[in-house]
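Bumping my old thread because nobody answered last time. Still need a sequence for this structure:
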């Protein structure tokens, strides 16, 4: 009985020595050991996932910066557009809002308007102006969506790349187990734990990419709707010009008997 009590006390003492501060250190040491012992396939998978992670974060940070600048400049441009009394005044401000998709739409439509009228007067064809606005809006949305497909690809493919590394690691571990002939958990557990690192790395790469893709896609859809609304507002402004200043009717052909000064006074001989 005394021997059993002594053994139990020694077990409690050993368990008490494993303080919470020592447990993270042991876990960190285990991860370090596994990283040193992983095979070449797992190393290649981890390097590929590292490159994918770096590229996805480059896309994420670049898109966040681009959308933030576009939002700020678009708000300022729309305020300037609504305060201006002439299209020429707005056209002079487009260079100050180069990051705004609305400014690019206005610039394309205004170029079409100038080709029609020379810069003043009512437009001759609203249909061509509407087509210019639609094309410019489509190009602006396409620019905002650049490299988003790569972000979606990384988000969907990274878990499978990590799983490939895990499967190959497990295959290698079981092959070594069969070669050694020692069918014990102690023999196979290190290889499987090392193989699972690639799955964790794949999830680590995929989760931020999925979240960022969904959030950025939602913001781009809102931007696309805002661009379409601005195009309609611009078309309304051009139609108001056409209503306020209707085009002059064509002059009638000059009669045969009208000559000299009588032609200037509109008097027939």
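Sorry it took so long. Here it is:
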């Amino acid at each position: 009985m005394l021997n059993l009590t002594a053994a139990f006390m020694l077990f409690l003492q050993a368990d008490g020595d494993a303080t919470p501060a020592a447990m993270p250190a042991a876990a960190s040491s285990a991860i370090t050991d596994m990283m040193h012992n992983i095979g070449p396939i797992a190393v290649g998978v981890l390097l590929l996932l590292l490159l994918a992670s770096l590229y996805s974060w480059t896309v994420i940070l670049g898109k966040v910066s681009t959308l933030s600048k576009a939002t700020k400049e678009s708000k300022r441009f729309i305020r300037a557009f609504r305060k201006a009394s002439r299209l020429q005044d707005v056209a002079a401000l487009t260079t100050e809002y180069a990051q705004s998709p609305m400014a690019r739409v206005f610039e394309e439509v205004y170029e079409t308007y100038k080709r029609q009228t020379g810069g003043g007067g009512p437009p001759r064809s609203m249909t061509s102006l509407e087509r210019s606005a639609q094309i410019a809006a489509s190009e602006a949305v396409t620019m905002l969506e650049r490299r988003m497909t790569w972000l979606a690809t990384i988000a969907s493919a990274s878990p499978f790349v990590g799983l490939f590394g895990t499967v190959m690691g497990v295959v290698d571990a079981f092959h070594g187990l069969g070669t050694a002939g020692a069918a014990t958990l102690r023999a196979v557990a290190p290889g499987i734990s090392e193989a699972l690192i690639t799955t964790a790395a794949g999830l680590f790469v995929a989760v931020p990419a999925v979240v960022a893709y969904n959030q950025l896609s939602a913001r781009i859809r809102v931007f696309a709707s805002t661009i379409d609304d601005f195009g309609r507002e611009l078309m309304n402004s051009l139609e108001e010009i056409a209503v306020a200043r209707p085009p002059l009717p064509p002059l009638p052909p000059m009669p045969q008997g009208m000559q000299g000064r009588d032609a200037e006074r509109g008097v027939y001989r």
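Residues 31 and 193 are 9 Å apart (CA to CA). Let me know if any region looks off to you.
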